[in-house]
Design goal:
This protein is an alpha+beta fold. The protein contains 4 helices and 7 strands; from the N terminus they run E-E-H-E-E-E-H-H-H-E-E.
Length: about 150
């Protein structure tokens, strides 16, 4: 993600597409028709409009309680580490590796990486707990996960 909160359209000539983009960033391969570039820029302008004041921000306390609006849910220490990684990148994709690094920080100390399905199993459990506070975790295929409000909570 770029440091500024201004929308950015990345023009990509060659190579792999950018994977670490936020909702106010997008990319397009060039050369591209002007109408396509303008359409992407308009979408970015709309996404960059500040959120309505009624939109709430999830808060994770040191006590392991995730609060969102008037609702709360208690999380296990592992769930706290996973949710912390998701909250650290609002409106952005968090890679599987970033979640593994956050959830199992001791891995680099001679312990093996958790198996792929270990993270998946914990994400399933987290998905079951988050609707109590109006949140969910969406899988972004081949990229990672993103924390979002449930549609009914908007």
């Amino acid at each position: 993600m770029l440091a500024s909160q201004q929308p950015h359209l990345l023009l990509v000539e060659s190579g792999p597409p950018p994977v670490d983009v936020t909702l106010i960033e997008d990319w397009i391969r060039i050369p591209a028709p002007a109408v396509d570039i303008e359409a992407r820029l308009e979408l970015l302008r709309r996404r960059s409009i500040p959120a309505q004041p009624s939109r709430l921000t999830p808060f994770l306390g040191a006590d392991g309680i995730l609060r969102f609006g008037d609702d709360w849910v208690s999380l296990s220490p592992l769930e706290v580490r996973l949710v912390s990684a998701l909250l650290a990148r609002p409106d952005a994709v968090v890679t599987r590796q970033a979640l593994i690094d956050s959830g199992w920080p001791q891995v680099g100390e001679g312990r093996p990486n958790p198996r792929r399905n270990t993270l998946d199993a914990h994400m399933v459990r987290l998905r079951q707990r988050l609707p109590a506070v109006g949140l969910t975790v969406r899988t972004i295929r081949s990229r990672g996960y993103m924390l979002e409000q449930l549609a009914a909570s908007l």
